Amino acid sequence: xxxxxxxxxxxIAALIDAKFVGDENFPVxxxxxxxxxxxxxxxxxxxxxxYDKALQSAATIVLINKEVECPExxxxxxxxxPFRDFNKIIKHFSPFNPSHSSISPSATIGExxxxxxxVIVGNNVKIGDNCLIHSNVVLYDNTIIGNNVKIHxxxxxxxxxxxxxxxxxGFDQLxxxxxxxxxxxxxxxxxxxxxxxxxxxxxxxxxxxxxxxxHVGHDTIIGKKCLIASQTGIAGCVxxxxxxxxxxxxxxxxxxxxxTKAVVMGQTGVTKSIAGGKSYFGxxxxxxxxxxxxxxNIKKLPExxxxxxxxxx
Length: 313
Known about the structure:
UDP N-Acetylglucosamine Acyltransferase, domain 1; Udp-n-acetylmuramoylalanyl-d-glutamate--2,6- Diaminopimelate Ligase, Chain: A, domain 1; 313 residues; 10-stranded mixed beta sheet; 5 helices
């Protein structure tokens, strides 16, 4: 998330009542998760395992729970609870703005676009030309829809990321302030859910077709001309490159890449990054030909065992 203007480090520190290390006028332009940070961003870190990654990232302001040496050209915000204070900054710069009508006055809707009854269009939503949005679709704030997009009934675009920190009192949610972006010529089936990015964008690329009851997690990027079949569950921060096919009930772990033109057969668990141009099957995932050979060999085990018994006699 980028702020609407530049803010000095000291002002951000005062907002969260934190100590700062660096020039009080050090420029702050926004905040982001570590995988999407750019210079001028705040990134937070609250576990020693990730200190070096955060300090060496592209972010130039690190919100951290330990006093450490500040890298050259960067600034620090020292907090006893960076997760809490990251949320404070989000709430300040991106407060929740309730809607008072089904279609927000701040939304823009292109020519030839049809909204069926009971569609909810949130604040600052942009919908392109010649789209068809069926009944009971919900487009949360800041969602962007391209041209010639079709969204079937009951789908929800822009709900919060599934991102929590466990505490003794329960779970604290990291507030989502990102967006969902749907490019041109995308079809989305009924009862799909596409979560917005935590601080960045969840994107569905040009010409991709999504079946019914598919879930897409936060900050995931789906490429062009992909096919995603029913009941597939895609975790957060996944990169799906162009022309990938995911058949029914595929599930993925987070933070992986599925290469261009990969085909993943139904009910496969994608537990790691996979190369493009190949077909995959099974859990744990393997190339489909190899997996099918293994299954065929398993069927031969009784015969092999009987032969061994006869040999021992």
